[in-house]
Every structure is written in C-alpha cells, then in structure tokens.
Amino acid sequence: xxxxxxxxxxxKVLSLxxxxxxxxxxxxxxxxxxxxxxxxxxxxxxGATTTHGRGASIWDSFVKRPxxxxxxxxxxxxxxxxxxxxxxxxxxxALGFGAYRFSISWSxxxxxxxxxxxxxxxxxxxxxxxxxxxxxxxxxxTLYHWDLPQALQDKGGWKNRDIIAWFADYxxxxxxxxxxxxxNWLILNEPMAVAALGYTTGQHAPGLKGLHNFLPVVHHLALxxxxxxxxxxxxxxxxxxxxxFSCSAVEPHTSSARDIRAAGRIDALMNRLFIEPxxxxxxxxxxxxxxxxxxxxxxxxxxxxxxxxxxxxxxQNYFRIVVKHSLxxxxxxxxxxxxxxxxxxxxxxxxxxxxxxxxxxxGKYEGIKEIIVSENGAAFPxxxxxxxxxxxxxxxFFRDYxxxxxxxxxxxxxxxxxxxxxxxxxxxxxxxxxxRFGLVHVDYxxxxxxxxxxxxxxxxxxxx
Length: 464
Hints:
Blueprint (H helix, E strand, L loop, with lengths): L7 H13 L14 E5 L2 H4 L12 H5 L18 H14 L4 E5 L2 H4 L9 H16 L3 E7 L5 H4 L9 H16 L5 E5 L2 H9 L14 H22 L4 E7 L3 E3 L4 H16 L2 H4 L23 H4 L6 E5 L4 E5 L8 E3 L15 H12 L7 E6 L15 H19 L4 E7 L18 E4 L4 E4 L1 H11 L1
Parallel strand pairs: 1-2, 1-11, 2-3, 3-4, 4-5, 5-7, 6-8, 7-10, 10-11
Antiparallel strand pairs: 8-9, 12-13
Helix pairs in contact: 4-6, 8-10, 9-10, 14-15, 15-16
C-alpha cells in the first residue's frame, strides 16, 4: 500500500503532477457542504460467498451458468473485502474522501431472504460501520445493489408482489440495527438495470428473458423504492434518505420528428421511469405509450404508495445515448447510434457534457430537493509498471465530468455530492474482472492493492 503520510517523496510527486496538470477548479469551488465520497457494492468486492452463514444470492447462481460471465469469472473471492475491509477503508481518507457508500448483502443478513437473522452477517456490517466512524468517514448505506437472495427468486423474485413485504422487513432489520450509527441511506441501486438486464434481456442475474417480465418488475421496484424510504424515515431519526438512478442524457440522431420521438421514448425509460412515480407524476406514458399496460399490475391505492418525498436523488452517470428511429424494434421503435467518439474499456462513450445535460434535466423537477452524483467513473486497461499504475485517461475523465458538474451547480442545479465509482477494482458483473474501475488497483492473484495515479490526483484535489 502506498503511504499518504505527507512524506517528502509523496509531496514531490504531487507537486510535479500539479505543475504538469492544472485543474480549472479547486475543492472549495463545490462548496463547504459538498459530499465527496467513493462507492462499492457488496457482491462485487466482499467474496466469502459461503462464509459465516451467508445464503446464496441470484448472482451466486447466475455465475455458474455457462457463457453468462466473461472468462467464466465468479465472485467467490472477489477482492476479499470481507477479510480485508480494514485495509481497504483506510484508503478512503488517504485519498481525501470523507464519505463511503457501500451496500449490504441481503442474503448475508437473511440467508433465506426472510425469517431467521444471521447474526454473523449483522456483526460484519457493524464492523464496517465502526471502522468508518473510527477513521472519520461518513457511511452511506445502499440497501439493495442487485444481489437478491436466491430463496426469494425461487418464489418469483421481483415479479412477485410479495417482495414489497419482504423488502420492507429487510429494510426494517437494517435500519433497526444500524440506524443509530448511519444517517445516510439509499434504497435501490439502478432499478432500471434490474428490470431490463435482469428480467428482460437476461444479461444479468437472474437471467430471465421476455418483455412480459418487464412491467411487473418495474412496478414492484417502484413500490419498494417508496416503501423502503418510508421504513427508513420511520426508524432512523434525522435520516437523509434517497435512492439512485442510472441516467443518461438522450439526444436524437437527427432533427427529424421520428428521431425526436424515438429519443423521447428512450428518455422515458432511462431517465423518467422511476423518478416520476415517486414525485406523484405517474409513469411517463406520454412519451412511451407501451407503459399504459402497467395498469394491469396496479392495485387500488398504488398511485399513492408510489409516492415518497426523498431528501435527495442519486444520479449515476457514465455516458450519453444518441438515438434514431428504428423499424426493427417494434416496442421501442428506437435504437442507439454508435457515434465516433472516445470510449472506455466498457465501450461507453466518454461524453462529459452529458453530465451537465442530465443534471440540468433533473434540476427542473420541482419535487427534487437535492441531487447527489452517487456514481461516476470509467474503466480502462490499467497495468502496473514499476510498481505504479499511470492512468491519465481516468484522471482526465474525472476532471472533465467534474467540470461539467460544477457548471451545472453554478447555474443553480441543486447538486451537492459526488461519489467515485469505484474505490477498488472489482467483479464487474457479466464482464467479470477485465474492466477496472477502481482508484485502487487490485491484483486478484495476490490481493495486493496499489493506488493508481487517478487516486493520487483525487488526494491532491481533496486534501489541498
């Protein structure tokens, strides 16, 4: 581990970098109350998937299916964060961050999804929280980051309306256990990805395919997002509660009316589908009439149950989407256009102006009190050379996206936080271990950690 103890060597390195690469902003430009943090997810880093009473999740089952995960990778060890959390958390303040967003593994607390509590799992997250507090780190908990207990999937998972009660009980357990220590809570991580990738295209766990799955899953996720918020607010005095959405600025490929309407349909799915019901605006059927079919799954009183007055909304932005009308996609009548532009190792377009556009778009909602960028980052093919990881592309990515965030903030958008994805290289779902998003490089064979130069850049920005 590279030390950040203000040694002469470290100061020389950072001073040299400051001379070679000057930012157009400083930390103070974002305001004194701005939340600077980094983020992880339980399944992607913890490992120990069969340890100390943890039950199986849908991802434990999914990784065993041939051809689903690149290179047949799995997360049985991942970053061994279950055992190395103390070392890992020390990177957070060393890199200048004051907040740490992490998720709780539902099946580590409730191996069957409901019922008997696994005390060893409960105690593990107490240790995580206590370590954060001892280091002066403010913990932010995500209740659900995609790892549904397999026992609940066997009962239908997110297709089963009973999940509203299952999730409320799980949220109740978490908030009763940790609410006296943790005030910052996020309910769901990217529900659109759960519905689309997990239950419609089959690219993510649980690997179900078919458009018939999409609408009930969307509705149950939207109900749980609000119900989870109510549980947190009831159990945690002075809670700061939000939820997260993966959002992208959507642009029509041309100025034709058909392309504009196609972009509107994609925007309805990517950006409006979950925020508008929570604001009492209903589902965005105006732009995407297919969503009218969701009425089949609405029970009396659901319109009111969908509403919740969140303290903040977490936006997770990585790329923009350019859309054109398509004759070959009969539901969407739209498809993405791959423009000629720089891309990350995930194939995502690097479009920092998209951060500005999506913040401005969400800033227009009167019901949103505050916006936190709860994820932003980039994967590149990092390599260790002479004991270091030099990643100027990632450094430039962060600089440019932060510049656009600051531009939106200066124009009045109520954005008050930024969380880097991710603290560590990790298991990147269906892409396995090839994409590296971390500020800290992980050698998966030895589990050695090495701070990347992008991490040093953040230390320089945030500590000076």
